[in-house]
Design brief:
Length: 192
């Protein structure tokens, strides 16, 4: 009797090896491998992403900005640290240089269509205009926004571009920079 029960248990265990549940796991693993290989065959995916490592004028780390090409624009994912609390103007600037202390080497806002400044400007906005970045009491903040206008290729042109954080809030109307004050953190976008 005992050996019969043992034989039944072994038979059930072996039957389970070919069950649909087990096959689904095999199919999922195969599909994951296919997805990984598909990503390896898509060099344009990595070419459509750039990261800017932000620093203050004193050279302290201040966070990162990631630019990704998306349908209809360029998504900017901004994460900052070590900045003064409150609202700050955040913009993409037209030149890929961050020479301290004032970061003037970054030029003005990225504006390939010669628009007016501000998200509230009736005729449109600079391609590099973004909502204000709110920084908490802990010096951290984040902002996720899709730029309106411009192309990823334009963002990464021969002279590059930068992510800039300003000392004050952007009023979203006043041309050319929204009265957002001095430049307190800057990072050059690098493909990758």
């Amino acid at each position: 009797m005992r050996s019969s029960l043992m034989a039944i248990a072994i038979a059930m265990g072996l039957a389970g090896c070919g069950s649909p549940q087990s096959q689904e796991g095999t199919d999922a693993a195969a599909n994951a491998g296919d997805a990984a290989n598909a990503g390896m065959n898509a060099p344009e995916a990595s070419a459509q992403r750039a990261v800017a490592t932000l620093q203050t004028a004193e050279g302290a780390a201040a966070g990162t900005a990631t630019a990704s090409a998306v349908d209809g624009g360029i998504r900017i994912a901004l994460e900052v640290e070590g900045l003064p609390p409150g609202p700050h103007g955040a913009h993409v600037h037209m030149t890929g240089r961050c020479d301290a202390p004032a970061f003037e080497s970054a030029g003005g806002h990225w504006n390939p269509t010669d628009a007016q400044h501000g998200l509230e400007a009736p005729p449109g906005q600079h391609a590099g205009d973004m909502p204000n970045l709110d920084v908490g009491a802990d010096g951290r903040g984040s902002l996720d926004y899709t730029l309106q206008g411009g192309s990823f290729e334009g963002l990464m042109d021969a002279d590059g571009s930068t992510m800039m954080i300003h000392a004050d809030a952007d009023d979203q109307r006043t041309d050319p920079s929204g009265n957002s004050g001095g430049r307190i953190a800057c990072g050059v976008f690098q493909a990758g």
